Fold ABC transporter ATP-binding protein.
Amino acid sequence: KAVFRTEGLTKIYGSGDVEVRALNGVDVTLYESEMVVLLGPSGSGKSTFLNIVGGLDTPTSGTVHFRDRELTAYSERQLTRYRRDHVGFVFQFYNLIPSLTAWENVALVTEVARDPMTPDEALALVDLSDRMSHFPAQMSGGEQQRVAIARAIAKRPEVLLCDEPTGALDSKTGILVLEALARINNELGTSTAIITHNATIQEIAHRVIFFIDGKISEVKTNETRIRPS
Ligand code: ADP
Ligand code: ADP
């Protein structure tokens, strides 16, 4: 069953001589409980794709359906609600509030969500039960990113969108973060799309989607997905 589906997704920035076709007719379906990774050179359209699917940006043409709803027909107000209720975001930088503990950073989200887990549950899922009362400055980059992931999943989003979550981490720490995402995908069944350059991801994702010049050049299905412990 599809969670979202794009058809002919096209995004053009600028106009005339400075026109950039960031996306040029992209058709992608993300299924329930699926974990996909988006790979491709810098500038190939991956972030633009993720931002549109997450309701942070709108396409020039083409459509996005989220379940049976057409996202591309939503008003600003509906998009705001879609982002709040249905989507979790993780970015390269963690954007934690420095004056709040890990637990309090996650609680900011759980206090306003409709059907949240507790901050304790969310932090346990990323293996940070022993860091709940630490402040961001007392944690490593990988731990801070895992707090950011706990914050993103605490509202039980249907879709988790991660734009270079390992971009600021060394590769070993990056692997721990990707494994946390895979474990969440297994345990909660959250459909997950990840942009990363970390090669390990190809073993833990169900599908790898390659972008080149705003188009999809290849889709590889991973039959032997390694299940993280
Ligand atoms: P990727 O994530 O694969 O690196 P992006 O989606 O960030 O690719 O960018 C795709 C293309 O769109 C690039 O040529 C980039 O320079 C351009 N682009 C992205 N965002 C903007 C913007 N806000 N204004 C103008 N051009 C943009
Ligand atoms: P409004 O409540 O403004 O009349 P809608 O009923 O179309 O507009 O939906 C508003 C919001 O409710 C959407 O932005 C979406 O986040 C959410 N929503 C509720 N049910 C669904 C569903 N089955 N599929 C997708 N989104 C839904």
